[in-house]
Amino acid sequence: MVKKTEVSNNTFHDLIEKGLNGVVPPVQGDYKNIFTKSQNLTTIWSGNSEDLKIFKELFSVKPRSGYGNGEVSLFWLFNYKDPTKARTNPRATIGSKQPGVEADLTIDGKNVEVKSYTGSKNSLIKLGMWTGVDNGDVQKMLETLFAVDKLINKSEAASVRAFDFNDIKRAADNLCIVRQSFAELDPKDREKMGKFSFFKEISSSIKDFDEDLKKKNLRECFTQKGRRVGGVVIAASLMKYLITEFFKRKPGPNGYVVNLPGTGGSYSDGRGFEITEVDGKNLTVTNVAKDKAFNTSDLNLFLNFDKLFK
Fold first, then answer.
1. Is 185 helix (H, G, I), strand (E, B) or coil?
2. What are the CA-CA distances from residue 226 to residues 188, 196, 251, 252 (Å)?
3. pLDDT tens per residue, the chain (310 residues)?
């Protein structure tokens, strides 16, 4: 999926030629097996100083806003071993051919998201907006959680705009307590409360939340034996699902995130390439529940790759 239909692979090729004043030198290194596993390639430029020079020249080149630093550089690095075949036999193309996938590049058949941040993989990294994941179902479920939580903890309740694991854990605990309270009501009392639209709406929303968890094979408020599970279990299950679904869209199935450390449009080569395989198969509920493994702010998702994928 190309970000803007009028930007094509030829656009990137033209930008490279323009950025290098019409003379595009061939890439010296081979750069094989780069996107095969999570790895920090700190010596990727060893013996390839000429490639590094061109990579830096192209680092801030981009067709327009919405494209990041390093995308054009990587496009050159993987396509111009033989400049005469760069357009006809590319290793890298923009976007992804897979429907619904928003990768920046496809390199050697792998979906790749390109980032340029100064923080380490053991810090929270901004990945982008998470809304719309799973056709908006996750957002709807979180809105229900926080709405119920706000009724109980008005001063502490979070919202879908900004939350962390503890916010979901507390909200899930409270929702399940309310769910249990409704379930344990005497039938006559339940009938009386059902006459009030306020209570009827709360009860309906909570039941829908539990049903949504069940449909997605996530942990529900109660076990089959009727025992109420803790909020930590629901929070970890739900956030693992959100992050997994997020990566299905961006960078896509079997995808990778590559960080090209830099600031102000300049590439800092000392750390080379920092590559993380972000397929959901590598994600566990235990890692999701780690302190500061993720958070959100202004509807954007921030992840700590070391905590989530080690």
1. coil
2. 22, 27, 39, 38
3. 444 448 999 999 999 999 999 999 999 999 999 999 999 999 999 999 999 999 999 999 999 888 999 999 999 999 999 999 999 999 999 999 888 899 999 999 999 999 999 888 889 999 999 998 999 999 999 999 999 899 888 888 899 999 999 999 999 998 888 877 766 667 776 676 666 676 677 777 888 888 898 899 998 776 666 667 788 999 999 999 999 999 999 999 889 999 999 998 999 999 999 999 997 777 999 999 999 999 999 999 999 999 998 7
Tokens matching residue 142: 């979180």
Q: Given the DSSP bridges, would you call strands 125-129 and 300-303 parallel, antiparallel or unpaired? A: antiparallel
Give me the phi and psi of 183, to 5 degrees please: -65, -30
Instruction: Record the pTM.
Output: 0.86
Annotated domain spans of the chain: 9-115, 133-243
Give the dihedral sign, CA 97/98/102/108: negative
Contacts of 95 (CB under 8 A, 6+ apart): 1, 2, 3, 102, 103, 104, 105, 106
Q: What is the DSSP letter of 28?
A: -
Report d(CA 1, CA 102) in Å as an integer. Answer: 6
